[in-house]
Fold:
Amino acid sequence: MRLWCLVFASLVVTCVARPQSLDQIVEKYNSEGKFQGVVLVAKGDKVLLHKAYGPAEFVWETPLTADAKFPICNLTEQFTAVLVLREVEKGAMRLDQTVADFWPSLKGSPTGEVTVEQMLLRKSGLAHVEQLGPDIAPAVEVVPNDVSWFWRMRDPRFGDIQKTAEFMLARKPVSSPGFGRVNPTDYIVLGAILEKVTSKSYPALLDSEILAPLGLKETFLLNSTTLVPKLAGSALMGVGGLHPGPCVRWENSPSGMGIVSTATDLQKWAMAIMDGKLLNPASTSLLLRHDDQYLSAIGVSMPVPFGDRQHETAELLGALGAYRVQMSLLPGDKVIVILLSGSNTFNPKPISRQANLPYELASGALVP
Structure:
């Protein structure tokens, strides 16, 4: 499973009077146990709803606040995709370049034939992190939880993008280039390529190209060993009720899963994408393109009926551990719906399926 308000000093984001229907929509899902977390609904620079529902953590049940931070899971990939497309626009790299162009030792191998574009669209077929298990490093210390092995490993090969990329590229692909399934390896490798092309670390590139220019002060790379103020807790609903959310080594894939952010910062990000502040029209179209085969890592865009007409939508869904995130846009209407949750009781679903929380909120935002 599994995007974006460039704010100038003179811009003020204002909340406008709105019927209680948006809040009532979320309250209904919350009362039914289907959503707890932070919701932000906006139309352009006007915030229609920004509210927290449920607890910040699940033991003392401290109330969650609207400025809480959440790991944004797969939404991180969109930041990486923008960084890649910016380098393509500069002429520093091409979408048809292959893995072998950056790791010459892989020339002639199936892995070496994978292109930048295939990785952007998650069609690389590269080795999947879910293939990794105790057999590769039985003595490695892991965090005891129920996420897959890769997200638990404390290993010097993981946490450094170059080493992680090289380790995964050395493993057997799961399919031929042009096929494949959702795979964190694609964006790990893209992060490593960005470092090679720019001669900057991924964190430095992210900050200089996106976070600082857009003023995303509450957005940064998450490290599992660092305490983050106002980081929302997580819990998994399972047999017997709620269980503590699993511990995740987010730093094992900084360019694919590693960003933490707030709903307000994500609204700024969404507006920057839709207003063309980061990419030219051609790149923005690629970022939001519709893939008929499956939801690409970059985002899925398709017309969806609201009332008596079709509206173009673009969205990205993400999950890891107990965290669930969704960002759904109606670019032509500048409507933004952001849902951030620390519980798997929220099941993100595309707006195109209708009759779900993001669709109902987008519908409410379209009301004049």
User: Anything to note?
Assistant: The chain has two domains: 14-73+215-365, 78-211. Residues 55 and 63 are 4 Å apart (CA to CA). The mean pLDDT is 85.
